[in-house]
Design brief:
The protein is mainly alpha-helical. The protein contains 20 helices and no strands.
């Protein structure tokens, strides 16, 4: 296959991915869980950025003039009942923070990392201000992710797996399911695919610009979701080992390349780290970490049979000190308590692994898990079923891909991708028990699966050639 033909096929995949996502977005464009749900958080924060309120709590929207409000907020306040309810919630939240409602727009928040609202601010600043407009932009991000996946797989394994990876990304609910909401997962998958492509670009040829690209992509991914720090640490550990032991570079070049990756990552993250240090006294990616740890590893998960709630914020009624005052403190007590629970989980890790991973793979077979994903994630039932099936198929194909790559002696590439996936699973198991957390793992798993699917196709072709009858020519004399 020529390079030109390959790019034409990738362009077709992009168009299909875009059309598919736009169709689903048009049919399922209502984020019906209410303005306070996570679905709206990033959209509203991105909208506030375009109005000059950088990284303030979305409740600030209630204190703006109607002309400055997002369209969805205007619709709420145009309804007297909904408007009064929202005002009451805003006043209650301000009281919890110990400030007046009018001060909400002056207080910096870092509940979530900054990259997602910054990305969503792009279409809003261009005049596409409605939620549906931003959803169509998310569809574009998802389609571009399929292109990055194709490029990453091509750099790692060749043109064939590249096409397969692009197709899987275009049609898999493990990707398009997240592209139907204005959440952080589509942005995380996009930057993770960019990071993987940058790494394999560097593996192909070790140059300083390519090392710089790794650092940039890594910083963007970490600034999208805080738990990506774990994935990034695993990837860097494996990559730095490969640079130190496997690559034919002198010691000076090795140190320089490692320094470029680390310094570029820290340089891009430094404005946000400085902002959080100035506000909270600690340079941190997201101060929601204490809450997430405490809620996902709480007394509800410590005692009894359960090893973690689907809900990011534990509704068990356990008496856990409030950790939501993220404007004023980091809830150190909650973090310490959560850490002790994590250590307890590690002590019985087989049970925890089976339970938390099992809920991901059997999400559509339990009414409890099914209802949570349906209500909290707002996924339609067919997407939930397709998601569960897709996880199984992707995992099986990825395992077969690992077997094929091991036979070919490509263990370094397997280690990079498998390490990234396992790092993400470790987050699910011991840190953050919510379905969305595995979104990043589908990037390396799909790249490995592209090799497995390619292997199956090759075997089918070989069998068809073997079974094809031979046609002998008869010559009349």
């Amino acid at each position: 296959m020529s390079g030109k033909r390959w790019w034409i096929i990738v362009l077709i995949i992009f168009v299909i991915a875009m059309a598919f996502r736009l169709t689903l977005a048009v049919q399922d464009s209502e984020q019906t869980t209410g303005i306070n749900n996570d679905n709206y958080y990033y959209y509203l924060e991105g909208y506030l950025i375009t109005e000059g309120h950088f990284f303030t709590e979305p409740s600030c929207m209630a204190e703006l003039s109607p002309g400055q409000m997002a369209p969805i907020a205007q619709s709420y306040f145009n309804n007297p009942v909904l408007g009064n309810q929202l005002k009451s919630q805003v006043n209650l939240q301000a009281n919890q923070f110990g400030i007046r409602p009018t001060q909400l727009c002056t207080v910096t928040t870092a509940e979530y990392p900054p990259m997602t609202p910054l990305v969503y601010a792009i279409p809003i600043s261009l005049g596409f201000k409605a939620v549906n407009d931003v959803l169509y932009f998310v569809a574009l991000i998802g389609a571009l992710t399929s292109v990055l996946m194709a490029i990453g797989a091509r750099l790692a394994f060749g043109k064939g797996p590249g096409i397969i990876a692009g197709i899987i990304t275009a049609i898999s609910p493990c990707f398009f399911g997240f592209d139907l909401r204005t959440m952080s997962e589509p942005i995380e998958q996009f930057f993770f695919a960019m990071l993987i492509a940058a790494i394999f670009l560097y593996v192909k040829k070790h140059t300083k610009p390519r090392a710089l690209l790794i650092g940039i992509a890594l910083a963007f991914m970490i600034l999208t979701r805080g738990e990506a720090l774990v994935i990034g640490a695993v990837i860097l550990a494996i990559l730095f080992y490969m640079i130190g032991r496997k690559y034919e570079l002198n010691i000076k070049e090795k140190l320089l390349h490692v320094g470029i990756i680390l310094c570029s990552t820290l340089l891009i993250m430094s404005p946000w780290l400085f902002l959080t240090y100035k506000q909270f006294g600690v340079p941190i990616v997201s101060i929601d970490g204490g809450s997430s740890l405490a809620d996902s590893n709480s007394q509800f998960t410590y005692y009894g049979q359960s090893t973690g709630s689907w809900n990011a914020f534990n509704s068990s009624g356990a008496n856990i000190p409030a950790s939501r005052r993220y404007h004023h403190d980091l809830s150190t007590f909650d973090q310490n308590q959560a850490t002790s629970f994590i250590l307890h989980h590690i002590g019985r890790w087989p049970v925890v692994v089976i339970d938390r991973v099992g809920r991901e793979y059997f999400v559509s077979y339990s009414s409890n898990q099914f209802n949570f994903v349906k209500d909290f994630e707002n996924w339609r039932p067919w997407i939930i079923y397709a998601y569960a099936i897709s996880i199984w198929l992707t995992t099986i194909a990825a395992l077969y891909g690992i077997i094929l790559l091991r036979k070919d002696g490509k263990l370094q590439k397997v280690a990079l991708l498998l390490g990234a996936a396992l790092g993400n699973y470790a987050i699910l198991i011991f840190i953050y028990a919510t379905p969305r957390v595995l979104a990043a793992s589908f990037v390396p798993m799909t790249l490995l699966a592209s090799v497995g699917v390619g292997g199956v196709i090759s075997r089918i072709k070989k069998k068809s050639l073997i079974n094809k009858p031979m046609h002998s020519e008869t010559v009349e004399v």
